[in-house]
Design brief:
Helices cover 84% and strands 0% of the residues. It is built from ten helices and no strands. It has helices at 2-30, 42-54, 56-89, 91-102, 113-120, 124-148, 152-160, 165-203, 208-217, 221-265. α2 packs across α10.
Length: 266
């Protein structure tokens, strides 16, 4: 009971801090402490966000960005899980890949944009490709980590029942690794969203990132912050939903762990 009460108290404190910060920002903007050209009051951001959601052209930009993000997430998950299984099955290849994956995010991915244009042409496909490249390493590492945490007893069970490789993957490895794979899914979602917005900001002529850059270049401060607010709300909501799913799957894994360990000890 105490941890639940503590979590609720911490949540209330965080909410109060956010409300106090927003109220202070509102007063500072309204009072002229912060120039309007630099930042608008939070109430004006909300109003601009509502106006943006009612604008058909901006809704089309939202849908374009959403399509790119979802496609990048899907490709990164499928390719990342496949590569993770491959590295897990081939130890020497994993040893070769470990330094590369460890230094993956030390390289700015946008330097590959000219290569992506050559490979995929101009449009949304290079941005999706960059988002996949940016997110796939997190999925590969999460997959390998998830497979490493599977109890050896499950592999023995698969050999006893003479399961084929597809059967092992579908009925044993994926269900056992799923709670830890969800952590990789959260990282992939965050990285894909960041890369897509940043790619549109710099390189695209469509999408929410392009609209934010356009608003900035034309000193449309309220519109810019309204669009940023929409992105923040969408990211926080998606992250909260994934976090709840991870906790739920993690709880199921924790309840199953004693039984699995008992099988392993036996």
């Amino acid at each position: 009971m105490r941890p639940a009460v503590g979590a609720k108290h911490a949540g209330a404190v965080r909410f109060a801090i956010v409300v106090a910060a927003l109220a202070a920002l509102e007063l500072a903007c309204r009072g002229g402490v912060i120039a309007h050209i630099t930042m608008v009051p939070p109430s004006a951001m909300v109003e601009a966000a509502m106006d943006a959601l009612l604008d058909p052209l901006l809704r089309a930009s939202f849908m374009a960005t959403l399509e790119e993000v979802l496609l990048a997430i899907l490709l990164a998950i499928v390719m990342g899980v496949a590569c993770g299984f491959w590295l897990f099955a081939v130890p020497w290849l994993r040893k070769l890949a470990d330094p590369v994956l460890g230094a993956w995010y030390a390289v700015p991915m946008f330097v590959f944009y000219p290569v992506m244009i050559v490979l995929f042409g101009i449009g949304e496909r290079p941005i999706v490709a960059i988002a996949v490249v940016f997110a796939i390493a997190a999925m590969i590492l999460s997959t390998v980590t998830a497979l490493d945490r599977i109890p050896p007893a499950l592999f023995k069970t698969a050999r006893i029942h003479r399961l084929t490789l597809p059967q092992r993957v579908a009925f044993l490895l994926l269900p056992a690794a799923l709670p830890h794979l969800m952590v990789g899914l959260r990282l992939v979602t965050a990285y894909a969203l960041i890369a897509t917005i940043a790619g549109e900001f710099i390189l695209s002529s469509v999408g929410i990132g392009h609209e934010i850059a356009f608003s900035y270049d034309n000193f449309m401060t309220a519109r810019m912050y309204g669009l940023i607010l929409i992105v923040i709300i969408a990211a926080v909501g998606l992250n909260a939903a994934l976090a709840r799913l991870v906790r739920r799957l993690g709880g199921e894994a924790d309840r199953d762990r004693p039984m699995i360990e008992g099988v392993s000890d036996g």
